[in-house]
Structure formats: C-alpha cells, structure tokens
Sequence to fold (122 residues):
Amino acid sequence: MPELRPDLNGVRVKLPNQPHIYLIDEGKKRHIPDPPTYNSLFRSWEGIVEDLDVNDIETGTTITPGSVIATGDATPHVYLIDGRSKRHIVSPAVMDKYHFRWPTQPVPQAVIDGIPTGAAIS
Fold:
C-alpha cells in the first residue's frame, strides 16, 4: 500500500527503464509531465534516483506543464509557480535539496503578487 514519504522530499525518482520522473513533494510523488517543464524547474538531469520502488510512494497531483521557478523584482523570495499557485521556497538550502534551478530573470512583482499562495516548500 502506498505511503507518504516526507523523508524523501526533494528527491527526484523514477523506475529503471521507465521514462516517468517524479518529484517527492509533501511526501508524495508528483509526476513531472515533460522535458521542458523538468528543464525549467531543475538544474540538471543528474541525481535522479532509480533504486526506490516508486509504486510504494503515495501519488500526488501532477506538476503542471510549464511550471517555473521565479522571483519577483521587488523581493528576494523565490517561488515554485505550479498551476494556479505560488509556493515560497524558504531558503537556498531548500533550493539545493530539491535541485531547483536558480531563477535567471525576475518577474514583475505585480504578477507574483497576483498568484494565489500555496504551502511553502521547506
């Protein structure tokens, strides 16, 4: 029976010889839908774990295609923009833990402020 695995938060996993890659987030595996979304979120394709039994981890919502890591141009906060919400990434250590890509261009603060806030990533 699948279970929550918050101890694996930030790990990217896949089954050997299978194309689907998942991010463990809030203890659940979240499918990363396509290479462009993966590339906009993560620094590289290195470090994906293949030896976990992905099917033993509870399934969460799929990461929305086109999700990005962004920062507003008026604050230093970094967010995962996923679907219709922004989730604050609380520290550089969490960025590293999740292997998130550092933002390269700020987004207008009004755009960031207009997106509903979801649970922080810590």
Q: What stands out?
A: The beta strands are 12-13, 21-25, 28-32, 68-71, 78-82, 85-89. Residues 68-113 form one domain. The mean pLDDT is 94. Helices lie at 35-41, 92-98, 109-113.
